[in-house]
Amino acid sequence: MRALTWHGKRDVRIDNVPDPKIQDPTDVIVKITSSGICGSDLHLYEVLGPWLDPGDILGHEPMGIVEETGPQVSALSAGDRVVVPFNISCGTCWMCGQGLHSQCETTQVKERGMGASLFGFSKLYGQVPGGQAEFLRVPFGNTLPVKVPHGPPDDRFVYLSDVLPTAWQSVQYADIPERGSVTVLGLGPIGDMATRIALHQGAELVIGVDLVPERLARARANGVHTLDVKEHGKDVADEIRRLTHGRGTDAVIEAVGMEAHGAPVTNAVQQFAGMLPNSVGEKLMGRAGVDSMVAFDLAVDAVRRGGTISVIGVYGGAIDPVPMLTLFDKQIQLRMGQANVKRWVDSIIPLLDDADPLGVDSFATHRLPLEEGPQAYKTFQAKQDGMVKTLLTP
Questions:
Q1: Are 5 and 12 in contact (CB under 8 A)?
Q2: pLDDT value at position 343?
Q3: Among residues 310, 337, 312, which one has the least CA distance to residue 98?
C-alpha cells in the first residue's frame, strides 16, 4: 500500500509499504477514505525526530470503511463506515471506565512511563503505524472504532478522530462560567474548533489570539473577538484585561504548545536535539528537554485571578520553567492532557447533523490526494496558502 512516512526532520515521503494484517482476533482492517494532518504532526515533522525511525507511518485522524474483521469482532462487519480515535484504548480497563481513555492501562507505554498508545505518534506512544495510508490495522474492533452512517461526506464525521473531542475536552476543562469569557491562544484546527464550541455552549466573550491573518479572519467570521499578536506584541494580556474590566478572562485555553513563537533560545535547543543521532537526541530531550513557554506564560498572565487554564497544546519538555509563584498567587486552576476521545463522542455526535452548528462540513481548508502529503506538511508548517486543516484522500 501507499503511506506517508517519516524520514527525518522536515522530510516525509510517500512510500510503498506492506499492507497491514489481522494480528489479534479483535483487530479490524480499515480502508482509509480520509485522514487529517494535525498540528501535533508538525511536532514530529520539526522537533520530535529522536523518537522516530525512518519509515514510520504518520497520521492519527483517519476514517474509512471496514475491509476485514478478526474472528472475535462482533460489533462491526465489512462495509461498515468508521472513525478511528487517535488514542488506542481498550474500552474495558479501569482507566477507560473512568473516561480516561488516553491513560488506557492495556496500551500504556509503560517502559517509557507514558500513557496510552497513539496511532502514528513516535516511540513515546508505542510507535504504532498511523492512518495517513491506504489501510490501517485497528485493534479492539468491538470497542475502539466509532461507527457512523453512510451518506454524508467524510467531513461530517472525520473530526471525531481528534479535532472535535480534543477541542471539546479543552472547553470542558476550561470550566467557563455561564455567560462567561474565555481566551483561546492559537487558532489552528484545535483552537479554532474550541472557539466554536465555547460559543455554542454559551460563552459571552470568546477572544482568539494568533498571528496568521487567515486564521484570525476565519475565527472573526464566527463571532470571535480576535487579537493579532503582530499588532499587540507583548501587550496582548493588557488588551485582554482591557476587554474584561481589568481582570482577564474567566478561562484561557492554551492550544499552541511546545513550539510557540517568541523563544529563540529554546527553539535553538529543540532544533539542536532534533539533529543529533536518535540515541543521543532522545536522552537529551528526555532529561533536559525544554519547551517554548511563551504561550503558557501568556495564559497565566491573561487569565483572571481564580480562573482556569486548560492546556491542550502538546508539550514534551522535562525541565520546563513553570511560574509556580504566579499560579499559586493568582489561585489558578490548571487542567491538561491528551484528549480522551471516546469519553466525549456521545456528547458530540448529536451536533453532527444537517444543521451543522459547529461548521464541520466546511472546516477543512484543503482536500488533497495522499500523494501530495509531503507538500501539504511543508505548506502547513510554513502557515502558507491559508492552510488550517487538510484532509488527505488515499
A1: yes
A2: 98
A3: 337
Cα gap 168→149, rounded to integer Å: 22
Could you give the angle at the alpha carbon of 28 between the alpha carbons of 27 and 34, nearest 5°? Answer: 135
Angle between helices 189-200 and 163-174 (to 10 degrees): 60
What pLDDT digit, counting tens, does each position of 341-386 carry?
A: 999 999 999 999 999 999 999 999 999 999 999 999 999 999 999 9
Q: What is the pTM of this model?
A: 0.92
Edge-first strand order for the sheet with 181-185 is: 225-228, 205-210, 181-185, 249-254, 303-311, 333-336
Amino acid type, 202: G
Distance from C-alpha of 256 to C-alpha of 41, rounded to nearest angstrom: 13
271, three cell numbers: 532544533
Q: How far apart are CA 149 and CA 82, in angstroms?
A: 8
The residue whose grid cell reads 471525531 is: 160
Residues paired with residue 6 on neighbouring β-strands, in sequence order:
12, 56
Under the phi-then-psi rule, with left for phi > 0, alpha for psi from -120 to 50, and beta for the rest, what region is 386?
left
